[in-house]
Queue: 4 jobs
Job 1
Amino acid sequence: KVERAFIIIYPFTPESSAAPTEETDSRPLPPGWSSYITPEGLRYYVNSSSKETTWRRPSSSAEAPQRPLARQNSSPYDKTLTLLASTFSFLPAALQQLCFSWVITRHLSVSSRFLLQINCVTFPLPGEGPEQQLLKPDEWSYCDYFWTDRKDPQGTTLVTGFEVLLQKQLKGKQLQKEMAEFIHERIKIEEEYAKNLSKLSLSPLAAQEEGTLGEAWTQLKKSLHDEAEVHLKFSNKLHTEVEKPLLTFRGDNFKKDLKKYDHHIADLRKQLASRYASVEKARKALADRQKDLEVKTQQLEIKLSNKTEEDIKKARRKSTQAGDDLMRCVDLYNQTQSKWFEEMVTTSMELEKLEVERIEWIQQHLRQYTTLRHETDMFNQSMVEPVDQLLQNVDPAKDRELWVKENKTGDVRPVDMDI
Amino acid sequence: KVERAFIIIYPFTPESSAAPTEETDSRPLPPGWSSYITPEGLRYYVNSSSKETTWRRPSSSAEAPQRPLARQNSSPYDKTLTLLASTFSFLPAALQQLCFSWVITRHLSVSSRFLLQINCVTFPLPGEGPEQQLLKPDEWSYCDYFWTDRKDPQGTTLVTGFEVLLQKQLKGKQLQKEMAEFIHERIKIEEEYAKNLSKLSLSPLAAQEEGTLGEAWTQLKKSLHDEAEVHLKFSNKLHTEVEKPLLTFRGDNFKKDLKKYDHHIADLRKQLASRYASVEKARKALADRQKDLEVKTQQLEIKLSNKTEEDIKKARRKSTQAGDDLMRCVDLYNQTQSKWFEEMVTTSMELEKLEVERIEWIQQHLRQYTTLRHETDMFNQSMVEPVDQLLQNVDPAKDRELWVKENKTGDVRPVDMDI
């Protein structure tokens, strides 16, 4: 059972968590702007009045941003993150740093000329925007490598990165079942072997051998039964300590849980796609409105008229509304993409942890297998020791004594006949 | 192959080999008699003129023995013994002593009132005659305990002591064959086990496990094949080092040799029986002649006559002849019994040696069995060591790296959409 720890990361407050570093550029910043360094050493700029944050050094003559065309930054202050934390490998400090990275790299804007959408998900163009640092450097973490969708091996349908991760876990369940099957086959082989040895140990062959040699032979035959017991014990332990655990590790609920993750993430993608459609629709509507405004403005330049001026005012108003609509749609889109992003990170971390657990659990149980093998050979070796002992004690003279006492016909020797 | 050493024991010469001891009886011996002690401390008496030897102290008034009625002693001086000596346990000194015992106890006479014939072999009555010392004391030797015939377990036919010894050797041959059969059955069991393990090692189960865990799993499967090889090697060695030798030890010639012994001894017994019959016949003839003499002597007492006197002379001559015949028959009988005695001793010693060899040979080869068992378990144990090593090296982080490198879909993270 994975421990779920919920950690709320409050919006990142640059004033409190990062110290300003030396500016390489000596030009003064425009009024209202300050500059800071993230824990990873990245310089960023914050506008204290608009709360705008950006990687790009604002130019001195930057005007107050015009809302419809300004780069809209989702304020990091407004975001919260919930993390699924596992008990291992996450230190509080590292956790914070991770979250800073998420917040900063996720929510800082990139110029729209440098964005591309792939299946409704928005990415920076390669080489554009601030270089993205890995969320978990040096770890080859799932949360760093499965963002884009790809064609599946057949090349026909699309597979999300998340589905790749999920499939791996499901595959793991199948592999553990196959391992259990293998162990089961070994068990059957051992039981057959034990049965054969046991049967042979009861053989009456050479049972008439007597004396110390007969004892040694009897013990030799018996030792086969002892060996059989050792192998039977081995197969029983294989069953309880290796096969059964491999079969029952992560029961039916596991698949259900994975399915839940699957559906949840898929729903978020559907929602994202739908909001992307809204953005496109609003974008088109704005373009129409702007074109309409342009046309009407041209009309005014040709022929001044009160009607035209009024039309222009109306058109400008509609254009502004369309701009507002677009902003709202983009905002909703970004919120959904944010939500999906967070779910992706936490769930892929969960899957990563499950995989680590799976590997370690299997390793442990296969080590149990080798331990049982070792034990078996040692026990088996000790089964011939009594035979060794008796063979060492084989004594032809003693055997002759025993046999002669039992079988002698008469000890009085003949003498000469006498008259 | 038994080493045959021929040792000729010259007739025992009391003068040279035994010192006279103190006489408990102070009465003087009759003329011509001397007294000696055997190496075992038995006192015996020798008549230097007649070469008569006896355990009984001759009475002072003993007359010169009358040949027909005298106790006829086979002179030890005339006997020679051939011994089948084996290389072990016979020291020259002990050998001599043994032979002395044979000579003395065998050939010294016992009064005919104290003899009994069992199946034509002549024994002293229990409690009569000098106490017989074992030929090989403290050894439970075959040559001491198989002199009389007995009824076989069914109680119908008669079995000679020698036949009991021979049967034991033949039985030994059968037992070794049964042991070989047992080993053969073990070999079959091992081959079956090896075959099953080998087959399972090729199983594709969980073959899709990758990374360090996959390597460990692959080696685990392979180790089953290695185990199979160990067991196959075991079964091969069992065949060449235990089964085959057990089958071929003492080939067909062995039975032929035993048969030869059997026939030889049986022939001597037949000869003895026939000579015994002759003795009985001669005894009866003598009795008839003596009765005839008696009758004729009585006739003379009734009525003296020349004819009767002549008849008596004739009858007396015939009686003497019959006495001589009887003596000759007894002599021949005793010679045959001697010969049979010697053959019995040497052949039973041979059989005894064969049995010692048989036991030791089987002991050696069964110890080879246990050695192979030990080796097998040790080799088998070492087959899981590479698996242990790889399991120890299982590293979920490394496996994740390998898998992610191979399967990642894209590492660029999404950013906010921007207009």
Job 2
Amino acid sequence: MPRPLQHPASADISIAAVLYALSDPVRAAIVRELTKAPQGMNCTEMNQRLGLKLAKSSCSQHYRILRDAGLIFCARKGVELFSRVRTQELSEKFPGLLRAIMAGYEAGHRD
Amino acid sequence: MPRPLQHPASADISIAAVLYALSDPVRAAIVRELTKAPQGMNCTEMNQRLGLKLAKSSCSQHYRILRDAGLIFCARKGVELFSRVRTQELSEKFPGLLRAIMAGYEAGHRD
């Protein structure tokens, strides 16, 4: 049996961990794409969507940091891991934060 | 003559660097206190305000990261360094971001 995936409870999500997790442009792009796919998305699809060639280990590491920070919820389906953004909990806990961050990255791409 | 202080131009402030700088609770607290002191504040006053006993080197390191990220503007007055938050530039570039982050830290303190 694979190890169960750990997720922080909503009350334990810290703003410091969220900011650190999203201070990496690749992780921020993963969250942006996951937000558009509420049914979840696995690593392979994500790589295709972002035009990235991340090694499986780098991909796992990014997902782990996002999961530990409380930004995404991951579930195993067979050998694949499907992830979705914890949008509702995050918007209740940190109103306006995700939107402001995503807009900030968007603005950077337009420069 | 001391080295001149380097500050990124507004166009070069990146969301990634801003998020990384504010992912440290001490740096976020420094920005929060500086926001309340538009005339600026030096390291000694900041330590007193925050009830911290940061070594001068740690304090300088925090200020340097905040300055390099474009969050604060620093100016020498004699041997002291006075800093202020680049509030207007930041709110034009990343609307709602600083407010959402500061509110997130506030909420964490209340938990």
Job 3
Amino acid sequence: MERLVECVPNFSEGRKPETIGRLVEAVESVKGAVVLGTHADEDHNRSVITFVADAGAVVEAAVRAVGLAKQLIDLNRHEGQHPRVGATDVLPFVPVRGVTMEDCVQLAHEAGERLWRELGIPVYFYERAALRPDRVNLEDVRRRGFEQLREQIEDPAAGREPDVGEARLHETAGATVVGARPFLVAYNVNLQTGDIGIAKKIARAVRGRDGGLRYLKALGFELASRGVVQVSMNLVDYEKTSVHHAFEAVRREAEREGVEVLASELVGLVPQAALYAAAAHFLKLENYTPDVVLENRIAAALERKRAGREGKI
Amino acid sequence: MERLVECVPNFSEGRKPETIGRLVEAVESVKGAVVLGTHADEDHNRSVITFVADAGAVVEAAVRAVGLAKQLIDLNRHEGQHPRVGATDVLPFVPVRGVTMEDCVQLAHEAGERLWRELGIPVYFYERAALRPDRVNLEDVRRRGFEQLREQIEDPAAGREPDVGEARLHETAGATVVGARPFLVAYNVNLQTGDIGIAKKIARAVRGRDGGLRYLKALGFELASRGVVQVSMNLVDYEKTSVHHAFEAVRREAEREGVEVLASELVGLVPQAALYAAAAHFLKLENYTPDVVLENRIAAALERKRAGREGKI
């Protein structure tokens, strides 16, 4: 598959494995789509399916899953710790290989149109697919969730009419927030101290919102069972604010606080490019290109030989 | 290709691009074999072709290339800076994916038998394919090269009879040294000093031969055109003595000498695993497995879906 898009639908169901299983099947019923993993949270009553698909198949796979979620999940019966506006709450499209962000914005818009036309679900566009600057951030779109939106959506003064569809939520499926964004890397650094104040201080120092690294979100947490604290981060554009820069920033701040870095951990998936970049950084590699990686060279050589055999130029 | 072997024949011809081109074609004439790159040195009058092939095709590809080299290269007419014993001088087999070192030793032995039976070229086995402990090192097999071997090979007292074939060199093709070894990573670290004595001292401190890191070879060089020096290394088993450990060892020694590390560089190809391991090391990644890499997870998921469709278990 040469044109790969990742899609990460978040559903308002986290307690029924059979529902999640059926949503996975709906995605994989589309040729060219594969599920990489799922995550369910019972407290949040929310689940996430991570799948990739060929650019020509990803919208169909998303629409099938959202359509099934509409049948299986009734938001009026949903309670859980996490703010949400829809049975399918969020639907981001992410470029992985051979597609641009602009391609993914178009896919998001196409998916949004289909959600309204075929399923009667109103749609808000966020992140890079946003049509209005006050809808870029998910939190600004979702605010207090379904119950509040249901009241405000028909009030023109509230300015919460959807980007696609009539200003009325679907009775049971609510609305869906659809967007395009870079690959998200979730990355934590654990510190050798029990003082959560230090973790929060470091998080404030390194995150973009408070003047730190631009594409970095960070919070400080306590890992009570281990007696240590954690700076928990989201790298929202790892090609710009890299994993290794986030690490070095936390390490420097920790040093200033007189605290050791114990370890770091990746949560979920990381693109190989991020690990290659980190290796090249720490090894001070002068000449690194992806072309020096054996496996890349093998793949390129196989493709060259195959293309040569088929007489392509 | 699930069972991949790398093969790196060294030929005693480095000045005629058309010869090297024809040898490349000979390799690629075998289904399942692709050339990753070539390198020719005019001073050494020597070239290296790096190719990979399916385990079931690699010996055939090697034998075809050695057979053509026998026709094209006359060692009696060969002069160059590099010691050699054959038109095809060295023929190592390297496990890359889905094959063990033991598999590659068997492939080396199979190739050696064919070189004698089909081409009349006597063969010495080296590295992991060696049949005698005094033939593990290439230098112990090759010694002063073709001209010296031609005199000594028939003298039982010299102990230089081949492992396969009669104790007589092929008239024009000499002998070939065939073996199996781990993937070799060539890696240099450049230091901010013009003093070659420091580079040599550091090379001695870090290399296995003199008590340093076991699977590391190192030499000190001057990069006169740049006014700096270089510790030039071969990692002969990067999974044991890793790239990042070699880097850290050189950096520590350089610090002791009061010298900065300018940069490092990879020469040729590096397996992705080596870069992942370096990233995991410097980032202190607690939970790194190849499974967290997005591209690995995609490949595994595609394979799972394909296998499921074909009804395999």
Job 4
Amino acid sequence: MKKYILPDMTWPEIKEALKTASIAIVPVGAQEQHGYHIAEGCDSYRAKEFSALLAEKCFPKVVVTPTINFGVSPHHMDFPGTISLRPDTFIALLEDVVSSLKQHGLKKFLFINAHGGNSAPLGVAAETLARRYNVEIAHTKFVDASKKTLSKEIDSKYFGHACEREISECLYLAPGIVRKDLIEKGDMNDDAFALKYMKSDFVKVVYQFNEITNNGNIGDGTKGSYELGEKIIQEALTNIAEFIEDFSSTNR
Amino acid sequence: MKKYILPDMTWPEIKEALKTASIAIVPVGAQEQHGYHIAEGCDSYRAKEFSALLAEKCFPKVVVTPTINFGVSPHHMDFPGTISLRPDTFIALLEDVVSSLKQHGLKKFLFINAHGGNSAPLGVAAETLARRYNVEIAHTKFVDASKKTLSKEIDSKYFGHACEREISECLYLAPGIVRKDLIEKGDMNDDAFALKYMKSDFVKVVYQFNEITNNGNIGDGTKGSYELGEKIIQEALTNIAEFIEDFSSTNR
Amino acid sequence: MKKYILPDMTWPEIKEALKTASIAIVPVGAQEQHGYHIAEGCDSYRAKEFSALLAEKCFPKVVVTPTINFGVSPHHMDFPGTISLRPDTFIALLEDVVSSLKQHGLKKFLFINAHGGNSAPLGVAAETLARRYNVEIAHTKFVDASKKTLSKEIDSKYFGHACEREISECLYLAPGIVRKDLIEKGDMNDDAFALKYMKSDFVKVVYQFNEITNNGNIGDGTKGSYELGEKIIQEALTNIAEFIEDFSSTNR
Amino acid sequence: MKKYILPDMTWPEIKEALKTASIAIVPVGAQEQHGYHIAEGCDSYRAKEFSALLAEKCFPKVVVTPTINFGVSPHHMDFPGTISLRPDTFIALLEDVVSSLKQHGLKKFLFINAHGGNSAPLGVAAETLARRYNVEIAHTKFVDASKKTLSKEIDSKYFGHACEREISECLYLAPGIVRKDLIEKGDMNDDAFALKYMKSDFVKVVYQFNEITNNGNIGDGTKGSYELGEKIIQEALTNIAEFIEDFSSTNR
Amino acid sequence: MKKYILPDMTWPEIKEALKTASIAIVPVGAQEQHGYHIAEGCDSYRAKEFSALLAEKCFPKVVVTPTINFGVSPHHMDFPGTISLRPDTFIALLEDVVSSLKQHGLKKFLFINAHGGNSAPLGVAAETLARRYNVEIAHTKFVDASKKTLSKEIDSKYFGHACEREISECLYLAPGIVRKDLIEKGDMNDDAFALKYMKSDFVKVVYQFNEITNNGNIGDGTKGSYELGEKIIQEALTNIAEFIEDFSSTNR
Amino acid sequence: MKKYILPDMTWPEIKEALKTASIAIVPVGAQEQHGYHIAEGCDSYRAKEFSALLAEKCFPKVVVTPTINFGVSPHHMDFPGTISLRPDTFIALLEDVVSSLKQHGLKKFLFINAHGGNSAPLGVAAETLARRYNVEIAHTKFVDASKKTLSKEIDSKYFGHACEREISECLYLAPGIVRKDLIEKGDMNDDAFALKYMKSDFVKVVYQFNEITNNGNIGDGTKGSYELGEKIIQEALTNIAEFIEDFSSTNR
């Protein structure tokens, strides 16, 4: 056994693992439309697979919980199949994961998030739960740890959902959920008010995704590739593993 | 495509599927100790795999949601690795699944449950949500649909958790999570008050699982087999598929 | 004083009683239609009177709280007069009873339930509160403790609500709420989908009571009698008193 | 039948009653210490019996729900046997009563309250529920409707709990819960800060009842009598019946 | 610095102040219509300014928190601009103020309330929070501490909202929010059912303010004056300061 | 009247204003330590004053609500005087503001936020409330609209709390809360784990402010000035006013 994935371990194995592992990694996904070319479990698959790679890399310092298969996705509800949790439900779910594992002795948590819509509720969850349970919590939207690759390799004006970045990640992490013959560019509504402020650096506007794109994706998926996915994921793995090294050894 | 598994489908595929599918199957599992011989994701794996088989059998009348990977398992919290949701969290999660899919036109739900501790909260969820959202909801602890096989093939006085029945199901549905070389009988505390009333037909007593068993399992796992698993699962599939046939055609 | 009924005692009397009584009995009823022949307080009256008999039989080991006069009865809401608590309200009410009495030193609770619709929320309440308040909780739908009599004396295909069993109980416990001149059989909708699955041993379907019966009752009330009521209640009293004996002496 | 008490009626009888009755009376009590001389169900018994008399007087314009057997009594928790609801629980319970009866066509509610500690939460409940359910709600601490008698007949400096007023009411409404041989004056802590501000007309101070009295009652119970009880109750009945006349005929 | 107003102090200044100050004053206002002649912040301004005067008078025994700028005002929602908190929100807000300051060592709280609609929820908040956080809480609708002046100086049959009393207070405390050229009498609906019971001493009826007045005020504002305001406020200051003296020195 | 500030207006004035104003500006502050040199109401004062300037600039298109005087500040709780709302309370408060004003016809909301700790809960509030109430919501941490000035004028490695930026804003907006004679640099804990990740662009770590600074501030307040404040505020006003122009005219 080279990685500690809790749902795949028995309780005596977990008991043993907790002698070295001090951090619980919680993969946080979503069930949400990703255009014509990625299946809706995209974020859950990416969170789960990325966490597994991270667990291998950081063995034996971390354990991985079951994946949170649902996220906060109200902006995608106009597309069939999307399931969105209320923020309260999402936070309660994370609370129960944290409080349960605290009882088993874990005091450090890293939420590995694959979906932008989860970021604000994750922020609320982290701030609240760390203090309520007297534990340390960190969270990352993991592709944010791949800044160099993204700035060098991607030049679409708008990207970040079912785009070349995400297709590449999927081709590397979970190729079965990509419809390779259907990959296409985002069919954008260029004049949309929401699109204008989507990337604003000072104001955030609530919008529905179908205000800005007709097919549900943005960017240019045709530029995605396994190779780009590998670069993105490996850079993120390196940076987050480095953080984990630091996080596991600090004693606040 | 022979079965409709929502996280593995794109939104246009789901849109198409909803033309024939009228029932959403929701696999409901748990992260919970199952002795020395089954990994803790046992109930989630069984719920997921059983639901997939059911979806094939009932194609194209049902769709399957992502698996609920966590259940209500406070009675197992004394064993490392168990994660237990508060009933409120569990019900809220099911509510968001139901309310989201209702928005996409689904009005019938079948919760496929693999964990006894989920039954009471599922009952509350079903009664509440069916009326709140004006939908039809049914739920089953799926092995209950295998009464004939169980009464004929199993003779342990106490069984129902990490026992010959559950090991057999796993060998058939998810063999990778069984530790075949570690299978053993339940190490029961024969005099426990909790054990005496565990199977009472008139009174229910709240207890912790380690009151009744030291290794976390009950029954006699050494009697489990792939063949027994096949019989259990196939009988349950037949009975539940028959119910689905009825459920999908009724119009209340 | 031969029984300890808390609303009928002063605080110094209660203080004295708690020197021997270690179990709080909580009678749990409902306000809910029971056909043309039983008044709607049926379940509350039965829970209250049964608990009083039990308190006499188990004197001085138990005290009885005021009756919970409302239950979870959404399936009866189509009949005038039914009042249904949301499960959250019902559980909160039980929580406050438990937490208050815990402050007075009581650590064992037995919920005496008279209404099937309360069972799932009672299960959730028991599991949650026992752990939250570090107390022992058991619960029983008390007629379940009368299995022998029921299997020997009742032969209606469907029974369990405003039927010969319940009329008999009322004639024994609270005859004033029976309209003897109006007793009749259930006017069943024989083809109802809900009726088909009402007694399923593997799937539970949410339904409204008026889907299965037009007059609100099932079974054959005309077969009810004081004598049958006496048998049912006495068997249940014996079995539950025996449990109380065990429950009061165990020290987990 | 001269009064409409819902738990004592069948659904067809209730259906008939609702042709003339437009107001639901909800008796609101408490389980709470009342000194050495009144049993703890005092407020519940008074609320129930007063409501029944009112229902007779106002027949056929009102129906009476089952009694709310628990109130908000944290200030009495230091005395054995008291059970106190959290205000949230109390309000939720009233909400479910109101929302259920609204479904049966009732649009006017009068809460008949017997316990001062319920007044603030009843105020919150009334204001909230009237608007949430678009119904009319009024509430009364019913002895407040007996101002003339009280000002003429009672001269204790402090009264209002297990005092001559309350004993008199009990002797008239529910004599069985009075311990006549144990009636005594309040054993007051004359210097208590809480006592000084208990009757302030401008500031309300949170206190525990045992700060101000050692035996749990105040006033001078020895001055209570059946005759005084009759005067108090009859004046209150007259005034509240007059209000009901007005309330039932107004159409806002 | 002659008064301790927390939002106007730095943390080292507050640290110093807490050496002598043992009571936190919390000004509680509302955003709510007050007729043609007072701006809607009326209650917030009055609560804030009164608290500041009180803090000067009771220096250095009290600190003043930021003002609660919103209250519970559903009965005024038919007039533009009114903002009403749900009671749960209002109580939660007070809870967070209390629990935060408890962490800084404060154990006594006095809510200075300027709005009648806040009284019931304040009562619930005080009773609940005092016990939950083991602190002492008192609350006052501060004009209630001016009984002598009010009974001597005001003779309108109905007063208490945007009337001569409130205009006078504003002229003394916050003259900028009075529209002196628009002061007028309440334009009452004399026959309203709500008006009849508005001042009942035994029954409380839920009503909307526009049922009883067309312009939003009652009483006779033209009789208001700075001088009357001074009398009202000074009497209230004297009485409440006296209570504070007592409250700060008591040690329960 | 050149700006519409709701607490300073009567209901007929507000009724008139709502003929032209379509956006409600909600100033969102905090009560929170800001070192030795700024009073704790800093964020509330800045939010309020900035909103007033914005209201003048955008007259007559916007109205301003009363200020939210408390924010989400758990990370500052180790410094005396800080009051922190739970995120649920904070969101509930915003919900009641939005739902109340929606009833008066307002359908567009702009939250003007002055405190970084409010950002995640504001994000949750905006996403949730916009959909629940079918309104448009945008929110800004207003200094983010001053990017040019900040990048040109500020060169401290760490800034953002009680630093030169914030002191400058205060000197411009609310000079009375600055202790000019006490301005000092942040007394940083250079080796703190929390400090290392405070500005991470990929991982967020929950920390307490006193982990990173001993005096409660960061940056170099001595570089602050009225002139810098003017530049910051004017740039932000220009950018946000431009957004308001767009927001008020769009019709989604």
